[in-house]
Specification:
The longest helix is centred in the first third of the chain and has 25 residues, at 18-42. Helix 2 (18-42) packs antiparallel against helix 3 and helix 3 packs antiparallel against helix 4 (79-98). The chain is built from 4 helices and no strands. The mean pLDDT is 90. By secondary structure, the protein is mostly helical.
């Protein structure tokens, strides 16, 4: 028995909950983008701009993931594309944290 064998049961459960989780995260990401956009409109700083763009990319990522569930016959939103989005989001948040 491998140490990761107990995780196989969790992976099966996560796959069955994939669609509801994507929709929940999509709604939350749109809400976070809206809040950050309102904050940026109130106080136009570069930090808030970076945060706003990061949440926008997060929302776009999950819109594409939701479309991938219902529109595409295969997986057009692959793991490498998701990794590029994640890298861009992290770089934007990193820039926002260390911006003076």
């Amino acid at each position: 028995m491998a140490p990761w064998d107990p995780l196989k049961m969790l992976i099966g459960s996560a796959e069955t909950l994939s669609a509801p989780i994507i929709w929940i995260v999509l709604i939350l990401s749109i809400a976070l983008f809206a809040i950050s956009f309102l904050a940026y409109n109130k106080n136009k700083t570069k930090k808030l701009l970076f945060v706003c763009i990061a949440f926008f990319l997060f929302a776009v990522k999950f819109v594409l993931m939701a479309l991938d569930l219902y529109v595409s016959p295969g997986k057009f939103f692959s793991v490498p594309i998701g990794n590029v989005f994640d890298l861009a989001i992290m770089l934007l948040l990193f820039a926002a944290i260390f911006r003076k």
